[in-house]
Amino acid sequence: MISPASEGVLARILAARHQAVSARRTLVPLAALEARLVPSERSFLGAIERPGISLIAEVKARSPSRGVLRPAYDPAELARAYGGSAHAVSVLTEGPHFGGSLGDLSRVRRVTRAPLLQKDFLVDVDYQIPEARAMGADAVLLLARVLDDAALERGILRARELGMEALVEVEGEADLDRVLGSTSARIVGINARDLDRLAIDLGRVHRLAERIRGGGRRVVAESGLSRREELVALRGLADAVLVGTSLLAAEDVAAALSALGFPRRPSRSEVKLCGLRSLEHAELASRLGVEWVGINRVPGARRAVERPLAAAIAARLDGPRAVGVYRDLDAAAVLEDARALGLDAVQLHGAEPPSVTRALVAAGLVVFKAVAVPDGLSTMEAHCEAGARILFDVAGGGTGLPFDVAHLARTLLPRPLGVAGGLRAEHLAHTLAALEPDLVDVASGIEEGGELDPVSAEAFVTAARGRAPRLPARFGVHGGRYVSELLVPGLVEIERAFAEAQADPLFHAELAALLAEFAGRPTPLTFAANLSRELGARIFLKREDLLHGGAHKTTNTLGQGLLARRLGKRRLIAETGAGQHGVATAMIGAKLGLEVDIFMGAHDVARQRPNVQRMQLFGARVHPVHAGGATLKDAINEALREWSASIEDTFYVFGTAAGPHPFPQIVRGLQRVIGDEIRAALLAREGRLPDHVYACVGGGSNAIGAFAAFLDDPEVELVGVEAGGEGLGGRHGATLHAGRHGVLHGAHSYVLQSDDGQILEAHSVSAGLDYPGVGPEHAHLRDLGRARYTIATDAEAIDAVGWLARTEAILCALETAHAVAALRREGREGRFAPGALVVLNVSGRGDKDLDHLARLAEGAVS
Fold first, then answer.
1. Which of 368, 427, 612, 758 is the most buried (most CB within 10 A)?
2. What's the CA gap between 89 and 78, in Å, rounded?
3. Does the pTM exceed 0.85?
4. Catalytic residue positions, numbered
């Protein structure tokens, strides 16, 4: 242990920590801390006991040796960037020298499921360990150089009492002698940095690791690690590495993680069915939707297939990619056969040298290299460097026997990683949890009596896909996914991501925080006293116009923006009519650091110029669409075309509760907060539910958001108001009144169409309602009679804008004005019982429409 009076960087830090902790003890007594402690539920030890070498990624603002590491330091954003790559996150909470704070623990914990290590200079373990736990830490760093033997052991035991772990850090032999001889440490870190001189000595890790590994202890290598080859060299020595500066100094953190050997792990594993021997097998694989199938081309093997049948199987596949399996051939022979069969992937299952791998990769083939565990691990790195995807298996392959994952301890696992060898559906969950493979390869595990069994194959694929729930694709007869096959993978990916996010408390916590702190939820429920006196009911206005961005659209785009980031997309695209969804998408792109392209009908660009300017100010590129009627329908068409060509790195933020599955479900799920807030506010204020809920309907997102919370309350009348335009005898957008069953933009619903099925141009004075379709759930609610749909004409809507402004001093959007017009008309007709509770959803504010209204008044537009 050293004294605070000693010289060096560490001594200065410790002197400051003694003073700071003493002050905190006075402000927040230990008893107050302990009263709010709950044991940690995240296992730091479990995170580093897994097979392979685990990554502990660090967040810190600066270091004494390098200064400021990231000018715009945000610990939560860094933790998100580490998601799917790091197995634990180290949070440096020391302030004066490293720029951290205890509050960083709470901020990081909200955005990651990984266990958190508090990295600080603990000088008072009796106080600082409970303090760390109270702020969200699951483990603490104890420095052997700072604490005496008694304090070290007391800290280790106190951490365990709180469900935490202690990472005990040593610098040299003397420290290690004390830790091994006088403490019960289970995790020992070797710091390669001299804390006084700040110099790096990686050889220290190699010298000390062998002594630590006995007795079940785990080894963490710390400091100075920045290259993949350094981690490869730690094979057999370290269970985990703690990396900070090299990641924090990188401009592209994801690229730095990949280069280090820790790319983002897959949300689910690909599946490869191996040993297909018939056209029926090819059809089964296609039906099951697997990514790869293996066709054995090894002469004499039990599952071997001759060239004519192999070519036929490859040709019959619809979706899966065929992989030819070879053993100990030269590159020319493999390439000739693969070309003859029309394959674009091969699997090498012998003792092929890396030169064969390199030649096949250069020829444009995907190469899977089977590596026997443990005997072949020494060749793995060379094949990785040659471009192969590694497939772990037992020696020889095809035996139906599993390998022992214990052989992979303290080994940097390759990515992407495939696993084969004795896999079966009933045991697959353990493999998926332990190794998180990118691909699982099965042959004997789906056979009965030596033949492929369809039931076993389906069970295996189901187990590999995990248990994320599928979203219902239809509302009655409406909905579905009627799209080009180019769009299906992207839609499936989004559906899966949303289903997983719905079950993820971290997603909900982050979305809730953004909705509250950035968007301004909950929005007020305003009692409209003047409207109430005039119409004889108690009328409340749900003020979505006060949401940041000026409309309800921000809620949806925030949720979808988080999904895009969850999927690792770099760009958002969206359609927009009135421009509110475009503005909201542009805002969220700016907030989350994503590129944004907005497609907007040229007619709408002209009448919604203020919103176009807002999108551009937020950094979005706005693309006017001149095709068709140059309105919302045509903007969606163009956005879908763009997405089909860029689906790998682009997320389509669909703006309304229409379109192909899963967009109606996603938009409904995100927007239902509107109805939930209405319900809670009215119950708190009035003690009962509303009698009527009004909302305008184009595609229907604000309306379904308001209605969703009351669908199971038949006493609440739900009223949707469509664009009546010039009246049902002229141009309009009243799809639920004049539409017929059809398919538009990938979903079955009611559609405005001619007798021969051609889509008609919709019309409305409001850019957000001139859509010739409607969301499938609204179509279903109409069929059921659960919601009532009426119309308001252009003239009524224009007049309603002024009426609401004069009566309640609220300037609403022309879209909302349709609902206001219907409310006024029906109130004057005596539809509301005395004292009835009526809620109208003010979906957006009207400043965007002022120029358009002025031009209408001048007769410049129609």
1. 368
2. 10
3. no
4. 553, 575, 843
